[in-house]
Please model this.
Amino acid sequence: MAQIRFASHNSPGEAIMLGECPNQQRSATRKFLRLPAWMVFYGVSFQKHVAMVRDMTRQGIFFYSDVRPQLGEEMAFVMKFPKWTQSSPIACKGKVVRVEQAVPGAATGVALSLTRFFVLNKSWTIRAA
Model:
């Protein structure tokens, strides 16, 4: 008699949303955050942007914001979260691996592969360089 196998998820989208997609290219399990953050970008100029962090690991991050980086661009930034999260600021540096613009006028989705991930002291403040 043939053995019947049932999928553990109702849809492929559910597996993807839970980070359980078997063909994903991630080296670590994502932590879904959905947290607002202030992102301070360092480079040629000092820029401060509001962002919504969707998920992250020490190896990568995906966020929505009004920044529009180029694919392959290197970005260095510090994320500071609202006080109610009780989260420490995080300094990151990485390379843009994906940019998504679903609807004109909507926030841009940015995925980075991180080369630096460092938790800062909670007393760190945003200052111009």
